């Protein structure tokens, strides 16, 4: 049960959603954008958040659905992980990652935007957009802008308050690239990752994305250079990549930093061997 009252809005357009947010802010009320609600509801029940209002994005056409055009695919921010696993066949890495987040029931609610902007460390649905250099469409008081996903979400950044994520646009050719994906959890398959490693190989070059290792999901140009350095052995590349993580490894009740190091090293070796075999 949520133990406080809040206002509920269901705008029909991005413009209306932003206007509602601004009007509430002027009245001194704190609003949150709401998609699947799985996180907002569980945090509200736990007393971690107490918004005055929620602005539900599910009535906004631009945030819904999936468009497959000549060279681009566009995925609305309110699209659920189940929509992805069921429908978006031209983005196999995205489908694979979505399939391993939560249960089918939870995936029927969890949205792309809610996962990418989750307050938790994992945000695994961001990884395919990072690896494909997708474009994030973001609306804010200054209008609608297209931004590079990697730059927008660098080092764990989220959106500034009052901005909303509308869609992601991905080049179809990149979405379809050969991929590697492995997620290691503490016990059951349905759990947050100790380490998730995914990678794509395009034009002979590997690019890798990580979740569960640090306090945010990331890809890193330095690490990609190391992974593609054929002057080093596969084991040396794995060890060197780990030495260049953007921050020290997470050490928590899911796994110690030492265990994460061990798991990640194995995953990196497996990934590098996979791409040597298929190339
Ligand atoms: C059983 C279970 C297991 C899970 N396992 C994993 C896992 O292994 N890996 C993983 O990555 N995730 C996992 N998750 C998902 C994660 O923890 C969040 O619950 C989920 O991603 C939130 O999505 P939502 O659509 O329900 O977001 P909401 O609760 O609606 O919103 C989450 C946040 O995003 C913001 N937001 C939502 N939409 C927008 C928008 N369009 N613009 C701006 N801000 C917005 C909200 O204001 C809020 O701050 C799991 C969840 C469950 C329930």
Automatic annotation (TrEMBL):
Lineage: Bacteria, Bacillati, Bacillota, Bacilli, Bacillales
This protein's UniProt keywords: FAD, Flavoprotein, Oxidoreductase
Record domain FAD-binding PCMH-type: where: 1-175
Name used for this protein in its record: FAD binding domain-containing protein
Species of origin: Tigheibacillus jepli
InterPro entries in the record: CO_DH_flav_C_dom_sf (IPR036683), Diverse_Substr_Oxidored (IPR051312), FAD-bd_PCMH (IPR016166), FAD-bd_PCMH-like_sf (IPR036318), FAD-bd_PCMH_sub1 (IPR016167), FAD-bd_PCMH_sub2 (IPR016169), Mopterin_DH_FAD-bd (IPR002346)
Source superkingdom: Bacteria
Pfam annotation, one family: FAD_binding_5
Listed Gene3D superfamilies: 3.30.465.10, Uridine Diphospho-n-acetylenolpyruvylglucosamine Reductase, domain 2
Keyword Flavoprotein found: yes
């Amino acid at each position: 049960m949520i133990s406080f009252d809040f206002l509920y809005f269901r705008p029909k357009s991005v413009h209306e959603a932003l206007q509602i947010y601004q009007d509430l802010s002027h009245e001194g009320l704190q609003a949150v954008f709401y998609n699947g609600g799985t996180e907002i509801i569980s945090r509200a029940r736990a007393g971690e958040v107490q918004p005055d209002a929620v602005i539900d994005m599910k009535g906004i056409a631009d945030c819904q659905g999936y468009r497959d055009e000549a060279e681009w695919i566009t995925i609305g921010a309110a699209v659920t992980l189940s929509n992805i696993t069921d429908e978006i066949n031209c983005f196999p890495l995205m489908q694979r990652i979505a399939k391993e987040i939560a249960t089918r029931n939870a995936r029927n609610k969890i949205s792309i935007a809610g996962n990418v902007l989750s307050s938790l460390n994992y945000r695994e649905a961001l990884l395919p957009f990072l690896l494909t250099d997708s474009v994030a469409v973001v609306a804010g008081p200054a209008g609608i802008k297209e931004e590079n996903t990697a730059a927008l979400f660098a080092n764990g950044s989220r959106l500034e308050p009052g901005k909303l994520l509308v869609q992601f646009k991905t080049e179809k050719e990149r979405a379809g690239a050969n991929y590697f994906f492995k997620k290691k959890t503490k016990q059951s398959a349905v759990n947050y990752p100790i380490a998730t490693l995914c990678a794509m190989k395009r034009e002979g070059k590997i690019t890798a994305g990580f979740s569960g290792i640090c306090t945010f999901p990331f890809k890193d140009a330095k690490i990609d250079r190391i992974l593609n350095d054929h002057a080093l052995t596969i084991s040396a590349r794995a060890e060197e990549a780990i030495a260049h993580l953007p921050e020290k490894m997470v050490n928590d009740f899911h796994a110690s930093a030492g265990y994460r190091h061990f798991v990640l090293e194995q995953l990196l070796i497996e990934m590098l061997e996979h791409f040597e075999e298929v190339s």
